[in-house]
Amino acid sequence: MALNNPYNTTPLRNETAAGAAAQLLLLVLLGTALDLGPAGWLTGLAFAAATWAVLTRALSRSWLASFGAANRVTLARATLVGGVTALVADSFESPPPVTVLVALTAVALLLDAVDGQVARRTGTSSSLGARFDMEVDAVLILVLSVYVATSLGPWVLLIGAMRYVFVAAARVLPWLNGQLPPSTVRKTVAALQGVLLLVVGAGVLPYALAFGAALLALTLLSWSFARDIRWLWRTRDSRAEVGGQAR
Q1: Which family does it belong to (predicted)?
Q2: pLDDT tier at 87 (50, 70, 90 boundaries)?
């Protein structure tokens, strides 16, 4: 017999619906002010629909009694990321409004430092909130890497793709699914990806410095992933024993 969530999920669904409405409003504002083309509109709408569907499904399977202030901050970040995604998609058809793109990205990056603090201070930390935050970060880095790749070359896509390659590899190599210990270094490297890509995408650096900044981002991220993979490999046997005893 399947377990039913004892909480009323209607307020949670209302939160995701409000997020979708906010995303549509932002797209309308961008479309009106900047004359978004079909690519921008379609990509933005697809992002809004995917975010609403995935988040609604995740909440229906969770045991959260309320959405929480921290998740609202993350949802606001997701809305901004949706706007950035639409602008980047539109940039393949017409010159991008760099100032608007940079502004939306900068606010999204700033809010990334807020939702975790809100969760801790309000005692509303949850595994769903942490995963939601991580996925929004991953999408933003992927979108920024696509944007920067148009000027520096396709190798920049490795920055945005690395996390998804790791997830795909974990499906084949189960030992990669282990829980990593908290790491300030990992968090710092992850935060630097967005900052460095934003600076490069803003177009304020000469080509050589922009190339170096993107290369630095890729080098740091590769080192961070290699560091974590090495730890997961070295502890795979001990983690397997603990898992076997837990059964």
Answers
A1: Belongs to the CDP-alcohol phosphatidyltransferase class-I family.
A2: very high
